[in-house]
Design brief:
alpha+beta; four-stranded mixed β-sheet
């Protein structure tokens, strides 16, 4: 989807897309050589931050070695994850987020990568196991579904099985009686990934038919695209409405494309047919939160960093670190750091380090036994997030022994024999 597609959709809707009020930037999609990308390479760039020099590889580097996707990283961090697409789930874009294959043509292998580990030498990886996986793939047959069932999945064959909530149920005048619309799959997916003990979730949603229609020069592409772009707008509306219904959550809605296909926009503002292949033009990127892309042009690999930084914000350094000595113990205390899941206390015998770790804690204090008389050390406290990224406090000087205590003395007596306090 490119700017030409936005123009077609805007003309059909009679209004801007619901996400055009978001922060807006552009993303470069071309290969390092300057050639146009394909969905496998561009999808991998979005999902992993890795730019392959050639087209065709799924979730892998140029040697075919798997590269973890943002979906897999989020799942390892305890988040629920999902993939929703109007393509076959063995397609290149969904595959880039949940599979690792040396060729996008390995459709059956891509399907299996979601639900079964790959033990092929040189590209071993566990199953990505998204919590929800909605899309095409009925052609995968009973063998694929059997493997998925063994992994704990249930097969959903039509819209009825999605069990949509009433407020989002489709109108009775819907033309399709059994196959779910993209917006309906988004509702079902959000219902399944959200309840997760506040640990967050990641959901990749693809309107694949926009690209497929744009490749087909034998049809009236505009007529088909109008309906598909309107449905894409409805799918994003669902995400926006869901976000408004959950104000307690901080949810990033990011809308972009892996490339532009077949339709472009002139400088005059009019769209035109640009063939039936992928172009080299930049694509739009929209975000509901200000994550630094507004008014900028980024590489598509930087989209991965945008998602990473939002899901796993770097912690702030612990502040107001204090040291107190009491009854033979030394107590360090500090203010909590946003985004931190724990703290590491380090010390050094010299100011400025090097520091050696002495304790890890989830609290905002640490108690240590005192050292010998006259000994001192220097301490820092590092806050770390779920991905192990750390930020250190400023250094504090700790004097475990403190000044030498005064010698004990007997009671003081005045001239009249009365004891003085």
């Amino acid at each position: 989807m490119g700017y030409g597609h936005l123009k077609i959709g805007r003309d059909y809707l009679g209004a801007p897309f619901c996400f055009e009020s978001f922060h807006h930037g552009q993303a470069v999609t071309t290969l390092p050589s300057g050639a146009s990308t394909d969905s496998a390479t561009s999808g991998t760039a979005l999902a992993t931050g890795y730019q392959n020099p050639e087209n065709g590889l799924i979730g892998s580097d140029s040697d075919g070695v798997p590269v973890k996707s943002i979906l897999e990283i989020a799942r390892e961090a305890g988040m629920k994850c999902g993939i929703v697409t109007t393509d076959d789930i063995g397609g290149a874009t969904p595959g880039a987020f949940g599979a690792h294959e040396p060729s996008r043509n390995n459709v059956e292998e891509i399907r299996l990568d979601y639900v079964a580990a790959d033990t092929t030498e040189g590209r071993e990886h566990p199953a990505s196991l998204p919590d929800v996986l909605l899309g095409g793939g009925r052609a995968g047959g009973s063998a694929y579904r059997a493997v998925a069932a063994q992994a704990g999945y249930s097969y959903v064959g039509d819209v009825t099985a999605l069990a949509l909530t009433a407020e989002f149920a489709r109108p009775s005048s819907s033309a399709s009686a059994t196959e779910p619309h993209l917006s309906e799959m988004v509702v079902a997916a959000l219902d399944r990934v959200h309840p997760n003990d506040d640990r967050g979730f990641f959901l990749m949603i693809e309107s694949a038919l926009i690209d497929k229609i744009s490749h087909d020069g034998t049809i009236d592409r505009r007529a088909y695209l109008e309906a598909e772009l309107a449905e894409f707008d409805r799918a994003v509306q669902v995400a926006i409405a869901w976000d408004l219904l959950h104000p307690e959550d901080e949810t990033l809605i990011l809308v972009t494309a892996d490339h532009e296909t077949g339709i472009s926009l002139r400088t005059t503002g009019n769209w035109y047919y640009a063939g039936t292949s992928h172009t080299k033009n930049n694509v739009p990127i929209f975000t509901n939160h200000d994550v630094g892309i507004g008014g900028t042009v980024i590489d598509n690999t930087d989209t991965f960093a945008v998602m990473w930084n939002f899901l796993f914000p770097p912690p702030e350094p612990p502040s107001a670190v204090t040291v107190a000595r009491n009854a033979g113990q030394l107590t360090l205390r500090w203010n909590p750091s946003p985004e931190a899941i724990g703290y590491q206390v380090k010390r050094s015998t010299t100011s400025g380090g090097p520091y050696a770790p002495i304790a890890t804690t989830e609290t905002t204090s640490f108690v240590a036994a005192t050292a010998g008389a006259g000994s001192s050390y220097y301490a820092v406290v590092a806050a770390f997030n779920a991905m192990g990224e750390a930020a250190e406090s400023t250094e504090v000087k700790a004097d475990p022994a403190g000044p030498a205590p005064r010698a004990a003395r007997g009671p003081r007596i005045n001239k009249r024999g009365a004891q003085l306090n």
